[in-house]
Design a protein that fits this description.
The complex is a heterotrimer of chains A (322), B (229) and C (248).
Chain A (H helix, E strand, L loop, with lengths): L1 H14 L8 E6 L9 H8 L2 H4 L2 E6 L7 H7 L4 E5 H9 L4 E6 L6 E6 L15 E4 L4 H12 L8 E4 L5 H4 L5 E5 L3 H11 L4 E4 L11 E6 H6 L1 H18 L5 H9 L7 H15 L12 H13 L17
Parallel strand pairs in A: 1-2, 1-3, 6-7
Antiparallel strand pairs in A: 3-10, 4-10, 5-8, 5-9
Helix pairs in contact in A: 2-10, 2-11, 11-12
Chain B lengths: L2 E8 L9 E8 L3 E6 L6 H9 L8 E3 L5 E5 L10 H8 L5 H10 L15 H13 L5 E5 L7 H14 L4 E6 L2 H7 L2 E5 L8 E5 L11 H14 L1
Parallel strand pairs in B: 3-7, 3-8, 5-6, 6-7
Antiparallel strand pairs in B: 1-2, 1-4, 8-9
Chain C lengths: L1 H26 L9 H44 L4 H13 L4 H12 L3 H25 L3 H9 L5 H11 L1 H25 L5 H10 L3 H34 L1
Helix pairs in contact in C: 1-10, 2-3, 2-5, 2-8, 2-10, 3-5, 4-5, 5-8, 8-9, 8-10, 9-10
Classes of the chains: A alpha/beta (322), B alpha/beta (229), C mainly alpha (248).
């Protein structure tokens, strides 16, 4: 009797669909709180793309005090999202980290301004302007690199230390204010446009500065020990991001984000999604997640120029391009 | 000059037992009088009631023309300056001439440069008494203010106070039966509230300097006081 | 007193650092997670002068904030000590308002006052004000009956004398509270700088956090600790001198 029971059990296990097998537990630490900038991540989760790859993923929101690279090294996370400057600094300090995908092809960090204040035709229009930057954050280095590349000395502009409070910008004490174009940029832009203001955005990439933003990272050890897990995770995640850029998934994408970001209304989320799609897939769906090596090299160079690293790290060695 | 208590009833908030029930007593003439009784019968409480430190129940009558002061042995002088300085500061100008004499009487002349905390317990009680004696008062209740003072000096102080202030009324609260019997005039013995009357008047010998008590009379007065208690 | 404070701090800091380094070397962590000794040394060489200046900047704001809060706490404490309706209202208000965490209302302060000196000062003052206030109200409301009795009996009691007696009798408690509140004032200033100011050691910590640079944070912590130890030591010496001058 027990022999036949064992045989049946064996056959059930053998013939069981993949989903019935134990999934790998994976912790994924995001860079920031869940908002439209993480739409692909939440879609991969909500649409079951991780599950299809036999992955039980715990999405952990990030924040200013969270650092995915440290968590990878300490074993608290399997994958994470980090900005390019974080990755380069970590590599410079010997952190065993690799980049497996680049989420934003265009850095969402841009500068908002009132169009009636001035017209931005070229970099020279920035001369004499009061420009907001967050000292110590990558917008400082992006702006400095932009000015440097445009041949504008730092004493030709006035740099203003920026905080989360936008009052100095609204009061026009500052001419340009750094925002994430796909989230804050939309919210502020909407409210200003409702108030009858015309606003514009300064895109650093148009001035030749392509500073890489958020990327997906894992540890070298994980890549070496379990490349299949890394492949499955990467595949499911990028499927989520492709869905995020697919018009067919629009409502699902908005609903997925809205579950976490309850303070942003649906119309704003809709616009935020469109802007996010533009930043994630400017060259079409099949390039989503592509690692832009030239942009990484430029990012490294900017960090070297502004003393954020004290020697070249050869960042391309840490970029895992399929 | 008079202090009268008529049918006083008093109970501390939360206390099970009344401290005073129909308490009647009076001090109506100058001199050194005593309030005597065993511990816990309410001598200090009565002093506080009379002086107004505790909200007085109905029935307390005191002459308001001149202040009535209440001094007790737990008082301290602030330690931020020497006792001599403090004494000068709290003495009305017309009483300054008494300072020297009182300090001498209390054996404190050589200590005026010291802080209060540096004095012995007996010295602390005496300086406290001195600062009350240089005030303008009509009635002074002094509650165990000569505790920790040697017998001879206590005698000396009590006798000289009587001599120096013949027009004032002193109510001396003490457990010292010989002292009370010897030097006080009206001795009110306060008793537990279960006993009626709660206060019994006996007469002390009220001796002055150069007078010696007859030992049998003193024993008799002491016996009366103890019996009354 | 002063050298004891500094020695205690150095001991604790060194122990903490050794523990971190032990964790780093035992688990083979990179300099990114926990900076190694040489990286720390190099970072200290690079930033210590700047951080020391910023530490003094932060401390100066904390001192002004603390002084303001001491004055305010004494003012309110003196008014609130009385068993009058005004005193009762002041006391109740003081106890209730202190229940609000200042950090939670900090953003409003920054919006109203901007992110400059005033906001830092205000937050520093507010953070150390409430514990000070509670102590001062407690001390000023508690009669020292064995001293006050004479002055009340003789009709000499004035509010100034009452305050003087109560302050004098609780001098040790007051100096301890004031010395302790310096920690809160400094913490308040650092929090303010961390949240939204554009100067001071807290601002540097924020930048270091942006840059994921733990070495800079450790150097900043050293500067904060040493500055605070010196300041507290000096306050204790001052308190001791005041006590000595008043009692000897």
């Amino acid at each position: 009797m027990w022999k036949s029971t064992a045989l049946v059990s064996f056959l059930v296990l053998l013939l069981a669909p993949k989903s019935a097998m134990a999934a790998d537990e994976v912790t994924y630490r995001l860079k920031w709180l869940i908002n439209m900038s993480t739409v692909g991540d939440v879609l991969a989760q909500s649409q079951g793309f991780f599950k299809s790859e036999q992955l039980a993923v715990t999405l952990k929101p990030g924040g200013p005090e969270r650092d995915a690279i440290r968590e990878l090294e300490l074993g608290y996370a399997h994958f994470g999202v980090a900005s390019a400057d974080q990755v380069i600094k970590a590599v410079a300090k010997g952190a065993p980290v690799v980049v497996i995908a680049q989420l934003f092809q265009i850095n969402p960090l841009q500068w908002i301004y009132f169009e009636d204040n001035f017209t931005l035709n070229g970099a020279s229009d920035l001369i004499g302007k009061r420009i907001g930057i967050t000292f110590g954050k990558n917008d400082e280095y992006i702006m400095k690199a932009l000015l440097n590349q445009s041949g504008i000395a730092l004493d030709q502009v006035r740099l203003f230390s920026v905080r989360l409070d936008y009052t100095p910008f609204f009061h026009r004490q500052v001419d340009l204010w750094p925002v994430y174009a796909n989230t804050q940029g939309i919210e502020i832009g909407n409210s200003l446009e409702k108030a009858g203001e015309r606003i514009g955005f300064l895109h650093p990439v148009r001035f030749g500065v392509n500073f890489v933003a958020n990327s997906v990272v894992t540890s070298m050890k994980r890549l070496a020990d379990d490349p299949e897990l890394v492949r499955r995770f990467s595949s499911a995640l990028l499927k989520g991001w492709r869905a995020a850029c697919d018009p067919g998934f629009r409502d699902k994408a908005i609903a997925a984000v809205q579950r976490y970001d309850r303070d942003t209304d649906r119309d704003t989320l809709k616009v935020q999604l469109q802007e996010t799609q533009r930043l994630v897939s400017p060259q079409g769906l099949k390039h989503i997640g592509d690692i832009d090596i030239a942009a990484w090299r430029q990012t490294e160079q900017i960090m070297l120029t502004y003393g954020q690293i004290n020697r070249p790290v050869g960042i391309e060695k840490y970029l895992i391009v399929p | 000059m008079q202090v009268k208590c008529r049918n006083i009833a008093f109970r501390y908030p939360g206390a099970e037992k009344a401290l005073f029930k129909e308490l009647n007593l009076e001090f109506i003439r100058p001199g050194l009088h005593a309030l005597f009784g065993t511990s816990g019968v309410g001598k200090s409480s009565l002093a506080r009631i009379i002086s107004g430190a505790v909200d007085a129940p109905a029935g307390v009558v005191a002459d308001d023309a001149q202040p009535l002061l209440y001094a007790h042995n737990l008082e301290r002088l602030p330690d931020w300056s020497a006792i001599g300085d403090q004494l000068s500061r709290v003495t009305p100008p017309h009483n300054r001439d008494k300072i020297e004499r009182l300090l001498d009487l209390c054996g404190l002349n050589g200590h005026t440069g010291q802080r209060f905390s540096r004095l012995s317990l007996g010295q602390q009680n005496r300086i406290n008494l001195v600062r009350y004696l240089v005030q303008d008062f009509q009635v002074l209740i002094f509650d165990e203010c000569l505790a920790n003072v040697d017998e001879l000096r206590r005698r000396n102080i009590l006798l000289h106070i009587k001599a120096m202030y013949p027009e004032k009324m002193f109510i001396y609260i003490s457990h010292h039966v010989i002292e009370v019997a010897t030097y006080c005039r009206d001795v009110w013995v306060l008793r537990d509230s279960s006993k009626l009357p709660q206060a019994v008047l006996t007469q002390g010998l009220d001796l002055f300097p150069d007078q010696q008590p007859a030992s049998t009379r003193l024993h008799q007065v002491m016996l009366e006081i103890m019996n009354a208690a | 007193m002063l050298h004891n404070r500094i020695f205690q701090f150095l001991l604790i800091y060194t122990l903490g650092l050794l523990l971190l380094l032990a964790v780093k070397y035992i688990f083979g962590l990179s300099d990114y997670v926990i900076p190694g000794f040489w990286l720390l040394w190099r970072t200290a060489g690079d930033v210590s002068v700047r951080y020391a200046v910023d530490g003094v900047n932060t401390l100066s704001v904390a001192i002004i904030g603390q002084m303001a809060s001491i004055l305010l706490a004494f003012f309110i404490g003196i008014v609130g000590r009385q068993a009058t309706w005004l005193g009762t209202i002041v006391k109740v208000a003081a106890y209730n308002v202190q229940a609000y965490p200042i950090v939670a209302i900090a953003p409003i302060i920054f919006i109203l006052l901007g992110d400059g000196f005033l906001s830092r000062l205000f937050i520093a003052a507010m953070i150390c004000y409430f514990p000070l206030l509670l102590s001062v109200v407690g001390i000023m409301s508690e009669p020292v009956t064995d001293i006050e009795h004479f002055y009340q009996q003789t009709g000499r009691m004035r509010w100034q004398l009452e305050v003087k007696i109560r302050a004098f009798e609780n001098l040790s408690k007051l100096t301890t509270v004031i010395a302790g509140s310096s920690t809160l004032a400094l913490a308040g200033t650092i929090v303010a700088e961390f949240i939204a100011a554009n100067a001071g050691i807290g601002y540097n910590i924020r930048i270091a956090l942006y840059q994921s640079d733990l070495a800079k944070i450790l150097v900043a912590l050293f500067m904060i600790g040493i500055t605070l130890s010196i300041y507290q030591g000096l306050l204790e010496i001052l308190g001791h001198s005041v006590r000595k001058a008043w009692t000897s």
